[in-house]
Predict the structure of Kinesin motor domain-containing protein.
Amino acid sequence: MSAAAAAQQEQDIQRKLSYSAALPVSKPGDKTSRVTEAVSSFHFSQVFRPETTQRDLFEQTTYAIIEEALEGKNGLVFAYGVTNSGKTYTILGTPEQPGILPETFVTLFKKADNFRITASYVEIYNEKVYDLLATGQRRVFLQLLEKDGRVYVKDLEERPIKSYEEAKLMLETGQKNRQVGETKCNSDSSRSHCVFSLHLYHQDDPTTLFSKISIVDLAGCERGAKTGASGLRLQEASKINGSLMNLNRCLETLRFNQLHPKSERPVPFRSSKLTRVCTYIVLLPNIWRFVLIRQLYQSIFVLSFVCQDRHPN
């Protein structure tokens, strides 16, 4: 948990029921107190307390994904939640408390002696796709194309990385290019979805992709009135919420198809840039979600979004 989040911990509204359930509760007099426990119970494979360390979170979630990537399986980690809940802190961390992505760099370079590793960093802002590693002064949005049934970003740079230091520098370069803006909830709020991907190529076949790990930092879902959004910020919020809703519909459809294999519905991946970029990701076996809870009103939507996709396979 970030320092800002810890400072407001007394306002947090999560009560841990077990390792597999979390229940948001409201304070006496809160207008949301009408929500009942029957409506507000959600079940997950794991619930992490605020005192969980960055290292513990990494070891209990992402470490296994790295191990499987070295065996040829693709993997995904993404953070989802309301604005200022701690998503970017969970993914990036600080120099003293590194997040999931820096810890992934450390672990991968300790274990991937037989692999060539490259990286790419994509931003989706206002329904346009950008390369965060591009060197030009002018931001140029990129096209999404399809080949052999898979979506890819045309002209996206894929840089080789040979060490933790190179990977960290690349990440810092991309972060400087990311779109941020001030809202009432966060003075440095991420206004875009970002996907940092690590591509592994085995030395026995250096031109064929062996596996891929994608770390996704989603922009926070929010309400304009709550964040004080207007003008450009309101437009950004609308695009963010719309893309998250479309992702939600895709996950709902995937879940329905899993439960009703004889009555499968088409998955609406084409409904937004985010869902198109994530087409192959959400179909992968390793999907982990981090829900960092704040206001009850918004958190219930966040929890229901994530809970429905507990088992995406």
